[in-house]
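Design review, sub-item: ligand-bound model
Attendees: FS, YL, KQ
YL presented the inputs for the 3,4-dihydroxybenzoic acid complex:
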Amino acid sequence: MPNPTVLASGVLGLSHAVLGRVARSGAGAVTTKSCSLKPRPGYPNPTILHWGPGLINAVGLSNPGVEVMVEEIQEAKALLKPLGVPVIASIFADTIYDFGTITRFISEAEPDIIEVNVSCPNLDDRYQQMFAADPYVSAQVTRRVKRYTDAPVLVKLSPNVTHIAKIAEAVVEAGADGITAINSVGPGLILDVETRRPVLAHGTGGLTGPAIRPVAVRCVHDICRAVDVPVVATGGVSSGRDIVEMLLVGATAVGIGSAIQHRGIRVFEEASRELETYMRAHGHDSLASLRGGAVIEH
Ligand code: DHB
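KQ shared the predicted structure:
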């Protein structure tokens, strides 16, 4: 990767043209919106709202399905290869078994990395609970995915659990090559007090943006203490200062998503420059020399 910033899943990640644009604006890697076996229309609008300290969203995993996404990923790879920017394919399925099937299909596009979304908070009751809520289920999904691909596998975890480190240990034991943390927080609920109804058509939604960054930093810290694989730290990162914070608790790279809403896609290049300024000022000539340097005495 040319720098440690990654376009997080769920934002600008459905077409090769837009992924290309994000890469040309300075992202070090890009992640697609999660792709499912069949097309999903997603939830009705409004699906996303900026409410001050962050965003709330319930998009409903809308995507055109794996057949179309394979073509998009192939074209994105062709565009991004000369820039040295890897394409991360995010996948989602309804069952442990289907995680294997979608991995088999998506592998046709030869993504550089596969990210396994076991942690969307916006699912209907029929799913009962997120895969990422249970270490055993998360490990089974990971094993299933690993059976069908040689690409490195990142498993994206949820902060909405009691001990995220236990889930991380289970997926690494099952073969995960790295972890992305965190997915959105919640779900949360925001009402319009005039109509007395939820502001989102789906009702509840996942929280992202600056409000959740301290939760993300704590989760990444806990994970990095428990396992020895690269962590893509995601959750409220919007500046070089935020990247430094994530590196200090042990991250290898950082995901950026909601920040695009307020800083635009310049955020990748700008945050990378801010990171370099910090490194120069503190005498660091490599990311490795910053990684894990937090002083936390408990
Ligand atoms: C959606 C998916 C996610 O993984 C998430 O964190 C938030 C929203 C969605 O598509 O609804």
